[in-house]
Amino acid sequence: MTIIPLYIQKFIIKLLCKHIDRQNKTLEIITDLDSEYRKNESINKKLMLSLALVCKDWFKTLSNNLTVSVDFNYKDQSSTSISYGNNNNNNNNNNNNNNNNNNNNNNNEINNEKYSIIKRENIKTIKLHHDYKKPYFYKIIGPGGGGSIRAPEGEKEITINEIDNRFENLIEYQKQLQQQQQQQKKKQQNENQLIINIPFKRVLIRNINIVNFNDNIDKLIIFKFKENEIVKSNIQLLELEINQSSNLKDLEKLKKRVTKLFSLYIHFCTELQEPVINEAFRYWNHSLNQLFVSQTLRITEIFSKNASMISNVKYLEIYDSAISLKDLTFLLSPLVFKDLHHLFVGICLRKLVYCLSDTQDKRSDCICNCLTSYSSINDTFKDQDSFNNDWLELKEMVTNKNKNLTLESLFIGNSCTTYGASLLWSSEKFKKSFINNFTCFLSWISPLKKFSIHGGDNSIILFNIMENLKNIIYFESMVDQISGSVDDYKFKFNSFISKNQHIKQFKLLKLTVSNNGFSKNSLIDYKNS
């Protein structure tokens, strides 16, 4: 049996360490095409453990070359251990021990540090997944949005206090580590030549709002100094929320700390926040990849003013707003988003069904005017004419004007200025003429791979799309109402999916509205690997 020389084994492990670090440093953008965030982290953990358990030399090489810690567990005072991942067993044990066991605890911590795969002195990058209680990227806010966050499957549920403590622990750990490095440097250098190295070269944080972040980050010493010269922080941030509490002063403070911002969440903003939004677009346009908008007026005007600053955005979701056909045409225009891959919008499905149905199928169930550019709510003939013109403009945009359309994922939800988001319709409400015309619209978007819809019992719409548009292979349906029993409904979908093998993924969710908000009940989660 041929044995590879040890120096080659170590070289291979070092390459694997670079791969693991690179994967762990990634602030992975969640899209509907691949919503299993943190799957790679689990794979990396298993790889690390597999390598570490082979032999002592492999463990040592691995431990000496890993520099990224995902999430953070740190015990203050006498202990300086740091653990990988979300395993909080060491921290929880402290609460159960009494003072008589302190010496044993300290010895255990020394041993834990000795056999820890990731050594605290080697850490250059820390990635935190929680900073405040609105994890929009997870899209799993618990019922009522109370004091806890529903963690991803397999993860520990984390309370708000624990999240706050994690950030405070990072601050305390940073201080101690910097003090240790300062003492070491004093032994080697004259005080006039003192250089304090950055304990962490990079801090990656998933989601914050401006006010809370600035209060905490002032305590966290991320920068280094040489002869009193402050060097800019290197914080990479996945999501920033701008709301009615945001102002330019706080944003200017944040700009000095955050080098890259990947996602902006614009929530309940008025004209007073437009300068803040515009400046965020301008400063982070090179890295901005995703936009989330909720309950904010004039958003298309804001986008239009900043077209050159948001052209790199690939992922756009607009909540709690009923957009018009002209708005949809604008969003799909190459003049604004040149490389848009995912779009989530809400439109009035009642009005859309009426306008796209043949004359004999028309039934006016809504008098809102949020779908068309015509302002009157009483003249159905002019309303139809206006819709027809806007519909032709939309078709012209996606078939001719934007020949480089890159849209792969489209989510259409029901949103109406009169009736809101709920649509308690049976499948019979969606007439055949509407279904054919709507399917034709989706066929105009040639790159489309995923389609999601929310509103009523939309099964008959999806069946027609599945059967006629084979390029769409990912489907998601959120229904407010089910025709018949749940078992019969699931059987109907499963039977249809089995006959259409091109479908790679299908999710069926039943939405239930209550006083605490809404909850999702998964009925079907199909994957064809």
UniProtKB/TrEMBL annotation:
Keyword Coiled coil found: yes
Key words, A-Z: Coiled coil
Coiled-coil intervals, chain numbering: 160-193
The UniProt record lists the keyword Coiled coil: yes
Origin organism lineage: Eukaryota, Amoebozoa, Evosea, Eumycetozoa, Dictyostelia
Regions of compositional bias (Low complexity) in chain numbering: 86-110
Start and end residues of each stretch annotated as Disordered: 83-110
Protein name: Uncharacterized protein
PANTHER family from the UniProt entry: F-BOX DOMAIN-CONTAINING PROTEIN-RELATED, F-BOX DOMAIN-CONTAINING PROTEIN-RELATED-RELATED
